[in-house]
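Posting this for the archive.
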Amino acid sequence: MGVVLNLVTRLPVAIWFQENPRASDTRFEENLLELVSPQTLLLLNRGFYHFQFWQKLIQGGIHFVTRIKINAAIVYQQVFTDSYALRDRLIQIGSGTKKTPVVTLRLIEIRKGKVCHSYLTSVLEPEILPPYVVIDLYQKRWRIEDAFNTVKRLLGLSYLWTGSINGIKLQIWATWLFYAVLVDLGDAVLKDTAPHMADELSLPFERISLEMIYRGLYYFHGASKRGEAHDPVKYFSHPDIQKCLGIVKRRRKLKQKLIIAPFPDKQRGSDQFFFQSSPKPFLTASLQA
């Protein structure tokens, strides 16, 4: 099962199903090329590590961010940033054969403690997509894993109800459809809750627990039968219900501000290059068995 998720809305954009249980992510490359329009930034897992596919994306005006594999053959072209904590360089990768054509990308490496994390992107200008934004965006690729976790664990897609292909497709469609309804309900609760929270200027979607909204539907049904509630949004937005069910998660400590300077080692110490949130027109794609 392959799914493309909108990084902003968290809603599924496309869902594909392969009958072969051993199918790899590459089976969905043509589907992605037909689906995604130019000027879109894809966040890809390493299952889509395919040079021909990357080349087709770039030729179609589609950009991507992904992780680099160990022992990749790299030719360095230009250095944008070179420091102990961060390196941002223009590279060429690939052997030049038909299966592995040469592709020009940016390699971004960040050091966290003793571990170095490496990222690839087809956006070649640091002024357009600064290195720390690339890193922050790829960390948000985990949202598709959260979506699969919700669909499989909470909504029961980890177990198939039937052995027929048509029945499996119906189960997949119905489960993801209910997931979309649950996300929309969570978004509506978020918008209805945020204005009433005196200590919040804006309440991020991550603070809303979709699991507790899902489990709270049982209590809303009981309240509805008793004539005590008619609107699920108003019901889950009520402070007493939120406190009882834990609809709003506890606030975590703020992370370090994100550096968006295209050349961080040259702009160090300037507060104008910091911001808290990231850009939004992105899709993330993944495959799950």
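Confidence is low (pLDDT under 50) at residues 269-280. The CA atoms of residues 223 and 229 lie 5 Å apart.
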